[in-house]
Sequence to fold (193 residues):
Amino acid sequence: MARRIELFCEDSAHESCARALVERVAGELGCGVSIHTATASAGIGRLKSELKAFQSMVARGSGSPDLLVVLIDANAAGPNRRRAEIAELIDPTVFPEIVLGTPDPCVERWLLADPVSFAERFGVQPPLGAVTDRKAWKTRLLDTLEAAGVIVVQGGAELADEIFEPMDFYRAGRTDPTIQAFTDELRAALGRI
Fold:
Protein backbone atom coordinates (compact mmCIF):
# COMPACT_ATOMS: atom_id res chain seq x y z
CA MET A 1 0.00 0.00 0.00
CA ALA A 2 1.37 3.41 -0.98
CA ARG A 3 2.02 5.83 1.86
CA ARG A 4 0.45 9.27 1.50
CA ILE A 5 3.08 12.00 1.55
CA GLU A 6 2.00 15.63 1.72
CA LEU A 7 4.46 18.28 0.52
CA PHE A 8 4.39 21.77 1.94
CA CYS A 9 6.96 23.87 0.09
CA GLU A 10 8.06 27.45 -0.20
CA ASP A 11 7.56 27.51 -3.97
CA SER A 12 7.53 25.33 -7.07
CA ALA A 13 11.34 24.91 -7.10
CA HIS A 14 11.17 23.48 -3.59
CA GLU A 15 8.28 21.24 -4.61
CA SER A 16 10.31 19.81 -7.52
CA CYS A 17 13.24 19.12 -5.19
CA ALA A 18 11.12 17.65 -2.39
CA ARG A 19 9.23 15.39 -4.81
CA ALA A 20 12.45 14.16 -6.45
CA LEU A 21 14.11 13.46 -3.10
CA VAL A 22 11.05 11.65 -1.67
CA GLU A 23 10.78 9.50 -4.80
CA ARG A 24 14.51 8.70 -4.75
CA VAL A 25 14.63 7.74 -1.05
CA ALA A 26 11.32 5.84 -1.20
CA GLY A 27 12.60 3.94 -4.22
CA GLU A 28 15.80 2.99 -2.38
CA LEU A 29 13.69 1.68 0.51
CA GLY A 30 11.20 -0.11 -1.75
CA CYS A 31 8.44 1.97 -0.20
CA GLY A 32 5.42 2.91 -2.33
CA VAL A 33 4.40 6.54 -1.98
CA SER A 34 1.59 8.72 -3.20
CA ILE A 35 2.82 12.32 -3.20
CA HIS A 36 0.46 15.26 -2.98
CA THR A 37 1.27 18.94 -2.78
CA ALA A 38 -0.67 20.86 -0.18
CA THR A 39 1.09 24.06 -1.16
CA ALA A 40 3.96 25.37 -3.20
CA SER A 41 3.28 29.05 -2.77
CA ALA A 42 5.21 32.25 -2.92
CA GLY A 43 7.51 32.70 0.01
CA ILE A 44 8.01 31.98 3.66
CA GLY A 45 5.26 34.17 5.12
CA ARG A 46 2.61 32.63 2.94
CA LEU A 47 3.90 29.11 3.64
CA LYS A 48 3.53 29.70 7.38
CA SER A 49 -0.03 31.02 7.13
CA GLU A 50 -1.09 28.26 4.72
CA LEU A 51 0.52 25.61 6.94
CA LYS A 52 -1.55 26.81 9.91
CA ALA A 53 -4.73 26.74 7.81
CA PHE A 54 -3.93 23.28 6.40
CA GLN A 55 -3.21 21.92 9.87
CA SER A 56 -6.54 23.27 11.11
CA MET A 57 -8.37 21.63 8.22
CA VAL A 58 -6.64 18.28 8.85
CA ALA A 59 -7.38 18.53 12.58
CA ARG A 60 -11.08 18.93 11.76
CA GLY A 61 -11.08 15.53 10.11
CA SER A 62 -9.92 15.77 6.51
CA GLY A 63 -7.40 12.96 7.04
CA SER A 64 -3.81 13.23 8.09
CA PRO A 65 -1.09 12.15 5.65
CA ASP A 66 1.32 9.40 6.65
CA LEU A 67 4.14 11.95 6.35
CA LEU A 68 4.29 15.72 6.10
CA VAL A 69 7.38 17.05 4.29
CA VAL A 70 8.12 20.77 4.64
CA LEU A 71 10.85 22.36 2.55
CA ILE A 72 11.79 26.00 3.12
CA ASP A 73 15.01 27.95 2.56
CA ALA A 74 17.08 28.89 5.59
CA ASN A 75 18.06 32.20 3.99
CA ALA A 76 19.74 34.59 6.42
CA ALA A 77 17.91 33.06 9.40
CA GLY A 78 20.02 29.90 9.23
CA PRO A 79 18.79 26.31 9.12
CA ASN A 80 18.33 25.77 12.87
CA ARG A 81 16.33 28.94 13.42
CA ARG A 82 14.17 28.29 10.34
CA ARG A 83 13.52 24.70 11.50
CA ALA A 84 12.47 25.99 14.91
CA GLU A 85 10.11 28.54 13.32
CA ILE A 86 8.33 25.82 11.34
CA ALA A 87 8.43 23.18 14.08
CA GLU A 88 6.65 25.50 16.52
CA LEU A 89 3.74 25.83 14.06
CA ILE A 90 3.18 22.08 13.76
CA ASP A 91 0.99 20.10 16.12
CA PRO A 92 2.45 16.57 16.35
CA THR A 93 -0.97 15.15 17.22
CA VAL A 94 -2.16 16.28 13.78
CA PHE A 95 1.03 15.33 11.93
CA PRO A 96 2.80 12.52 13.81
CA GLU A 97 5.48 12.09 11.12
CA ILE A 98 7.21 15.22 9.88
CA VAL A 99 10.39 15.88 7.93
CA LEU A 100 11.63 19.47 7.76
CA GLY A 101 14.17 20.54 5.16
CA THR A 102 15.97 23.87 5.41
CA PRO A 103 18.48 24.26 2.57
CA ASP A 104 21.18 26.72 3.62
CA PRO A 105 20.87 29.32 2.25
CA CYS A 106 18.67 28.05 -0.61
CA VAL A 107 17.52 24.94 -2.47
CA GLU A 108 19.79 25.69 -5.43
CA ARG A 109 22.71 24.80 -3.17
CA TRP A 110 21.22 21.30 -2.76
CA LEU A 111 21.05 20.94 -6.53
CA LEU A 112 24.79 21.69 -6.69
CA ALA A 113 25.80 19.74 -3.57
CA ASP A 114 27.48 16.88 -5.45
CA PRO A 115 29.52 18.42 -8.27
CA VAL A 116 30.96 15.04 -9.28
CA SER A 117 27.61 13.40 -10.07
CA PHE A 118 26.39 16.69 -11.58
CA ALA A 119 29.37 16.66 -13.96
CA GLU A 120 28.82 12.99 -14.81
CA ARG A 121 25.18 13.73 -15.68
CA PHE A 122 25.57 17.06 -17.53
CA GLY A 123 29.19 17.00 -18.70
CA VAL A 124 30.07 20.22 -16.88
CA GLN A 125 31.17 20.54 -13.28
CA PRO A 126 29.79 23.46 -11.29
CA PRO A 127 32.39 25.83 -9.86
CA LEU A 128 33.60 24.72 -6.45
CA GLY A 129 33.63 26.89 -3.36
CA ALA A 130 30.86 28.25 -1.24
CA VAL A 131 28.97 31.44 -1.78
CA THR A 132 26.63 32.75 0.87
CA ASP A 133 24.11 34.66 -1.13
CA ARG A 134 20.98 33.08 -2.64
CA LYS A 135 21.33 35.00 -5.86
CA ALA A 136 24.88 33.70 -6.36
CA TRP A 137 23.73 30.06 -5.90
CA LYS A 138 20.91 30.57 -8.39
CA THR A 139 23.30 32.17 -10.87
CA ARG A 140 25.83 29.34 -10.42
CA LEU A 141 23.14 26.74 -11.14
CA LEU A 142 21.85 28.55 -14.22
CA ASP A 143 25.33 29.28 -15.59
CA THR A 144 26.43 25.67 -15.15
CA LEU A 145 23.31 24.25 -16.80
CA GLU A 146 23.60 26.72 -19.67
CA ALA A 147 27.30 25.81 -20.10
CA ALA A 148 26.12 22.19 -20.42
CA GLY A 149 23.73 23.22 -23.20
CA VAL A 150 20.62 22.62 -21.12
CA ILE A 151 17.62 24.83 -21.83
CA VAL A 152 16.42 26.16 -18.49
CA VAL A 153 12.89 27.50 -18.23
CA GLN A 154 12.15 27.42 -14.48
CA GLY A 155 15.43 28.28 -12.80
CA GLY A 156 16.91 24.77 -13.02
CA ALA A 157 14.77 23.09 -10.36
CA GLU A 158 12.71 21.48 -13.11
CA LEU A 159 15.74 19.18 -13.50
CA ALA A 160 15.63 18.02 -9.87
CA ASP A 161 14.89 14.40 -10.84
CA GLU A 162 17.88 14.29 -13.19
CA ILE A 163 20.16 15.95 -10.62
CA PHE A 164 19.14 14.00 -7.51
CA GLU A 165 18.81 10.56 -9.14
CA PRO A 166 22.58 9.98 -9.49
CA MET A 167 23.59 12.10 -6.48
CA ASP A 168 25.85 10.54 -3.87
CA PHE A 169 24.15 11.74 -0.66
CA TYR A 170 27.22 11.07 1.44
CA ARG A 171 29.36 13.28 -0.80
CA ALA A 172 26.58 15.89 -1.02
CA GLY A 173 26.21 15.87 2.76
CA ARG A 174 29.88 16.64 3.21
CA THR A 175 29.37 19.68 1.00
CA ASP A 176 26.04 20.71 2.56
CA PRO A 177 25.02 19.16 5.89
CA THR A 178 21.40 20.30 5.47
CA ILE A 179 20.79 17.91 2.55
CA GLN A 180 22.32 15.09 4.60
CA ALA A 181 20.05 15.93 7.55
CA PHE A 182 16.99 16.01 5.29
CA THR A 183 17.70 12.73 3.50
CA ASP A 184 18.57 11.00 6.78
CA GLU A 185 15.33 12.22 8.40
CA LEU A 186 13.36 11.26 5.31
CA ARG A 187 14.87 7.76 5.23
CA ALA A 188 14.09 7.27 8.94
CA ALA A 189 10.51 8.58 8.64
CA LEU A 190 9.74 6.43 5.60
CA GLY A 191 11.16 3.45 7.47
CA ARG A 192 8.82 4.10 10.41
CA ILE A 193 5.68 4.46 8.31
